[in-house]
Amino acid sequence: MAYSVFVGAGQWVGVADEAQGFFGFDPEQGEWQAISEGLPATLEVRYVAIRPDQPKTVYAGTQAGPYRSDDGGESWQALPLPAGTSEEDSVVWSICLDPNDPETVYVGTQGTTVFRSRNSGEDWQRLAISSPDGALKANFPMRVIRISVSNENSDHIIVAFEIGGLVRSRDGGETWESCNKALLEMTEQPHLKSAIVSDNEIEGMMDSHALALSPRHPGTIWLANRMGLFRSDDQGTDWTEFGIGRFSPLTYARDVMVSEHDADRMYAALSVAATSDEGSLYRSDDFGTTWSRFDHGVSIDSTLMAVAESVTTPDRVYCAARRGQIFGTEDGGKSWQTHQLPNGVQGVYALACA
């Protein structure tokens, strides 16, 4: 069966090891199916990416490296990282397909480790990225939480680290520079100080979660982090705080994305904190100038971790909450349904829609 929605769960603080896995959903059948064919027996999935021009090609980031399906999720094959890659460096946290060349795939793992493939994952090259100023040590390892490639120029790459801020390359990954200077300067403002997993109050601004780029606005980068939404209009040199609190009472930003179908449409997953009892999905139709709540008639009872719009239709939009609630619309937001993951699965990280 080819699935329309993919959800991945992984271990997180307070959840037992068995509360993990990978699931596919078909709205017409209305039930979840565990995905396992060709995948590791013990499975954690923290990122899923669908190739827009070939929606049956799906990538999954597991604790044992990247995998690919060419039949819409029915079966999977391992895409081994280079020989000698450590077990720690094989834990995939992010995947990015070059929007100008979908044969080029990036995978982000622990620390500052990024791999690139020019042939859909058959072979990989490790990119040399140094830890930027502001990167922190905490009770979990820093990881590559997002990778984005410019629609205008594939040599322009930006990488976001959880508790490490951002770096960018303008030469296709040959050299890298920090994008943290302006973000660190913002931590002088009392409301942007935060220390939860370290003793350093720059932590909140270094706690990156997601990036959003638009082909219609090539110089602009949106960043979602613990402290809210931030925007750069010069490819990551200078940053301004957007002030999402003007539109939403919830400001912890876990995900932000630009629509595949409308370059001015954006979605943001907003909550109270990393672990909380409330979440919300917001949408903007003017590239982030204004926002309004998009989910209707549903009760999100935990942190909203991810939002995904279908690569084939703008009417299908899903969002995923940490404790296993998945919310979806098939009619552009007119109606919403709740689809709880089976068997008490929690720790949701990954979401994608075909």
Folded structure, characterized:
The protein has 354 residues and is mainly β. Helices cover 3% and strands 39% of the residues. The protein contains two helices and 28 strands. A four-stranded antiparallel beta sheet has the order 3-2-1-28, with no helix packed on it. It has a four-stranded antiparallel beta sheet with strand order 4-5-6-7, with no helix packed on it. A four-stranded antiparallel beta sheet has the order 8-9-10-11, with no helix packed on it. Strand 8 and strand 9 form a beta hairpin. The protein starts with a strand and ends with a strand. The model has no long low-confidence stretch (mean pLDDT 95).
Write the layout of secondary structure elements.
Elements: E1 5-9, E2 21-26, E3 31-34, E4 45-50, E5 58-62, E6 65-69, E7 77-78, E8 94-97, E9 105-108, E10 114-117, E11 125-127, E12 143-149, E13 157-162, E14 165-169, E15 177-178, H1 181-186, H2 203-206, E16 208-214, E17 217-225, E18 228-232, E19 240-241, E20 252-258, E21 266-271, E22 279-284, E23 292-293, E24 304-309, E25 317-321, E26 325-329, E27 337-340, E28 348-353
Antiparallel strand pairs: 1-2, 1-28, 2-3, 4-5, 5-6, 6-7, 8-9, 9-10, 10-11, 12-13, 13-14, 14-15, 16-17, 17-18, 18-19, 20-21, 21-22, 22-23, 24-25, 25-26, 26-27
